[in-house]
Amino acid sequence: MNSSLIQLLVLAGIAIFLILKLRSVLGTRDGFEKPPLPLEDAAPRAKRDFAVIEGGPDHDILDHVPEGSPQAKALAAMKRAEPAFALTPFLQGARQAYEMILMAFERGDLDSIRPFLSDDVEASFAEVIEAREAQGLTVEADFIGLKELAVDDAEFYPESGLGEITVRFVGELTSVVRDKSGEIIEGDAKTAKRQRDVWTFARKLGSDDPNWQLVATGG
64, 150 in Cβ contact below 8 A? Predict the structure, then answer.
């Protein structure tokens, strides 16, 4: 075997090794990938980064709700309906969605968040925004951070496959309301306030659409 052939085989071996190493780190991508949407389950069809022993505790659920609770049973039923569903990635998406939806509402911009709102929630948001505009009021707000996020409730309806997860948020933001002349009539731009919300997200488990919608809001 001549030296040129040996060199070629060595180079080919190195190339194969690098390709396999790259795939193990980055995964395989085909074509153009859209950026992830805030309420989309993170990597819904990818292998989970945790293992559940058959018949053992599912810490993806029990890290967030008490064992044996109605919420835990509902979340387990969601996983049976859609094995790729996981609660932890859902909550990560809910965290991002909370800031996005809250700030869009404060700015009076429903267009950017309309796909993530149910018809009822969109209508109630629009009513408040229209009332502000009719009075000539504007809101200036900055989101500082989320202090608390917890699962408040969970429901699963096997007949329709609909799952509902209620999340409690406590965020911090600065907010001021200005009148037509630009004078501040409420709030303080230098003082952060806490915003408490209880939001319910819904989605049909097992459907092709991975996005959850905000279907109810409360304080």
Answer: yes
